[in-house]
Amino acid sequence: MNVLKTLDGYDGYLGIGNGGFTNGVQVIVDDAIYERLTGKDTYSEFLPTLNEGADRENFDTFIEAFCNRIPGTTFLSYEETDQQLKESFAQIQMLAWGLILFVGLIGILNIINTVYTNIHTRVTEIGMQRAIGMSADSLYKTFLWEGAYYGIIASVIGSVLGYVCTIFIEAATSDTIQLVAIPVMPILEATLLAVGACLLATAIPLRKISKMNIVDSIETVE
């Protein structure tokens, strides 16, 4: 029999460890080799299913005692396994959402800072436009559209990069690079959030600047 791999120091790794086999080893083989090594072509397996309302604590106690009486016997509860998987998934999901919110917050703050700074460094320009007759409505319309363009451009770039990242993430799980379904709703939500942040960051300082005296606006040192 050819030995493909030995696992040293992995007691319990395969589920039963070496319990009950004090100087023994575990060998992973297929059914044919198992029969050739042991002279047996059968093995015992129990798959108990509990009815609704059954006393789970007494059942677990009985199963543990049963496994202890028969060397090499192990017990696996699919219910406990499913619960552990759900808890692990919930933790991973919470960490993922935390990372998404953190990165998203940084992105929104960068957008707000860029647009806000853009308005404050153009106080003189705004004063000149008001001096030559631009109304407050026209001023708002011009700069709000500019803010919307910032948000749309940022959304397009972010959507493309996000879609590329999605393709690579799917490739990591399937070992195949292929196009995936476009996440339309997340893209729309991110676009609305980015455009809304740009409009808000434009409207707040613009409202303050539009109330300044025209002469003071022109004389402001940027």
TrEMBL record:
KW Transmembrane helix (keyword) present: yes
GO-annotated molecular function: transmembrane transporter activity
ABC3 transporter permease C-terminal domain mapped to chain residues: 99-214
Location of this chain's protein in the cell: Cell membrane
Pfam families: FtsX
Residue ranges of coiled coil: none
Bilayer disposition of the protein: Multi-pass membrane protein
Gene Ontology CC: one annotated term: plasma membrane
UniProt keyword list: Cell membrane, Membrane, Transmembrane, Transmembrane helix
Transmembrane segments: 94-112, 148-169, 181-204
KW Cell membrane (keyword) present: yes
Similarity comment: family membership: Belongs to the ABC-4 integral membrane protein family.
Protein name per the record: Membrane protein containing DUF214, permase predicted
